[in-house]
Every structure is written in C-alpha cells, then in structure tokens.
Sequence to fold (115 residues):
Amino acid sequence: VQLQESGGGSVQSGGSLKLSCAASGDTRCMAWFRQAPGKEREVVADMRMDGSSTYTDSVKGRFTISRGPGILYLQMNSLKPEDTAMYYCAADIPIAGSVYMKRHWGQGTQVTVSS
Fold:
C-alpha cells in the first residue's frame, strides 16, 4: 500500500492549490488531514465510497474533496494563512482475512499561505 501526495506549495492569501494523492490498494474511506506546527493533526475532509463527504467547519465552502480510481484530490480555494500546514492523505484499507480496516498515511505535502 502506497499513498503519495503532491501539489503543495506556497501561495498568497486568496490563492488556490489542488492536492493529489495517488493510492494503491483497496482503498475505502479516504481523507485529508493537516498538521500545523505546534498543533494536533486534524481532519480536513473525508470521502466515503458512496461519494458522501464531510468537511471541517473552517474549510467549508472553500475546499472540495473528490476521488477517482486510485486517486484522491483536494481543491483548495480562497486560501488563508491559517491553512498553512503539512497536509496528509489517509486511506482505510481492509486487513486481509479480517473485517477490520487499517489506516495508511502518506508522507505529506507542505502548504504555505502568506498574507
């Protein structure tokens, strides 16, 4: 199982970025998390196999999560300095021979928004 994020970078406030996560394996629920320096990792958005999604309140109306076969996206518009963080892709994948899932993580991609 591999998850590889891309698309991070530095933008000015109000700008946009689109993150991608290339995933191998039988992914089920997938999500984007972020972690800013000195803060705990938080979920930004997640998407289930039925296409339903949820967002943390601070990004509603600005970020859009989507997915295709083997890939997860996060379109980020109207970026704010407080969106600055390392962004991680996560995927829940069934454990062979079990009813349980295991959460896998990518290495992260840095997003920096300047005012």
